Amino acid sequence: MRKIGILGGTFDPPHIGHLIIAEEVRLALELEEVWFIPTYTPPHKDSTKTSVNDRIEMTKLAIASNPYFKINTIEIERSGKSYTIDTIREFKKNHTDCEFYFIIGADMVEYLPNWQEIDALVKLVQFVGVKRSSYELNTPYDILTVDIPLIDVSSSMVRSWLGKNRTAKYIVPEAVHSYIEGEKLYGTK
Which label site among 38, 97, 160, 184 has the fewest CB atoms less than 10 Å from its CB? Predict the structure, then answer.
């Protein structure tokens, strides 16, 4: 069985925290690949700040230097709100040679009881929780935990900084930073 990590999110924009999480979990669990899955519209958010095409392009740029990282646009292709249960069911159907590990931050670990069909979902995929400041890894569900270096960064923080004309250099990969500036995303000038 191939061991595949899944990291879902809006990636609006992708930042070094996403990359560190993916790499640390990949190494700790000896995963063959980590699939980055941008959502079209996440169930827990009203909208994204940039277009689907911008988020796909930024994600591709962010992961380009790591041969173990891949992008999978299953949720973009589905369009509308995406639920993890639907994605995992499709993966299990189409990738019978794979065992999946769904990587989530501690903020999402606490939110697991609210996920669509969570009781069915935890039977289909192994959740992997990573620490995040201000959150605990407390849940009634069976999750693996992986310690990662705590870097307190989020996409909303990056957007806020850029909106205030503050640089996000070193917080997002260089190629993503150049793309954001070139496309004048998030209020950059």
Answer: 97
Q: Is the pTM of this model over 0.90?
A: yes
CATH topology of domain 2-183: Rossmann fold (3.40.50)
User: What is the three-class DSSP state of 80?
Assistant: coil
Give the phi and the psi of residue 69 in degrees, each rounded to 5: -100, 135
Residue 152 burial (CB count, 10 A): 9
Nearest CA to 133 out of 116, 154, 118 is that of 154
Would you kindly state where each structural domain of the chain is located, as residue ranges? 2-183
Q: What is the pLDDT of residues 39-61, one digit of tens each?
A: 987 665 556 788 999 999 999 99
CB 154 within 8 A of CB 13: no
Write the CB contacts of 131 (distance below 8 Å, at least 6 apart in sequence): 106, 137, 145, 147, 148, 150
Taking every pair of C-alpha atoms in the chain, what is the biggest distance, in angstroms?
48
Residue whose token pair is 């569900």: 141
Closest CA to 90 of 125, 63, 47: 125
CA distance 88 to 99: 11
